[in-house]
């Protein structure tokens, strides 16, 4: 199977490349070869390579900067998925696309399901929602995977930031009134690979099955935490003498250009029911990342 994987330099994309490349023919272009902000670049690359499956892990992920660079965020997160999907439909390919918990406004107090009303409160979330809508309208066989609070050992993320700050400061102030699902990037990558296998017969995509299960799915680690609770779990793996003092603060004490949902926990009941994928609990995933087992 020939798979076009965008965003292979990112957190989820990097994990996907490592998991998929031993089993499939994976085309993983860099930004020069496939520019997700350029519609002509997207169409030309897909038509030239004719993949059987497209996995779009590429995204504009700078949440605060998106408030300034709205056009660029919209081009990459909103327009590009639609173009990829339209090209996928033309060649009979399926598409798996990664989205975000930030399509919600955070007003719920119980985990969001795929059927809950979307209402993004920042431009990043709005741009990702536009991408979802474009995919759904394209007519292509598609799976949209909403992830949350992604971290790992590469790129910029909360886990690495906490480790860095712990070396520089004796006290770290951490927001304690935003609740979500800390998700090691390996978990959604593994889930996506399980979906690819579930939708394949003899190593080829089963298009009919793909169309039957097309839609939105939440794919995050099980359980919920505030940023403060997540930080506590991270520093607890440090030697006792190196652990900084953590001080909980309110979001209002740490203003950012983009608003964040106060609550964006996602329910994974649907993906477990349809694909049989059981999510790792977030503390267990963190332990596996830190300790290697």
Structure description:
- The protein is an alpha/beta fold.
- The protein has one domain (2-156, 182-221, 265-279): Rossmann fold (3-Layer(aba) Sandwich).
- The protein has helices at 11-20, 39-49, 70-91, 123-138, 158-168, 186-198, 207-212, 227-235, 269-275, 282-291, and strands at 2-6, 25-27, 53-56, 94-100, 142-147, 150-151, 171-175, 179-180, 183-184, 200-201, 204-205, 215-218, 225-226, 245-249.
- The strands form five sheets. The chain has a six-stranded parallel beta sheet, sandwiched between helices.
- Helix 4 links the parallel strand 4 and strand 5 (142-147).
- It is globular.
Question: Can you give me a brief rundown of this structure?
Answer:
Helices cover 39% and strands 17% of the residues. With 293 residues, the chain is an alpha/beta fold. The protein has a single domain, classed as NAD(P)-binding Rossmann-like Domain (Rossmann fold, 3-Layer(aba) Sandwich).
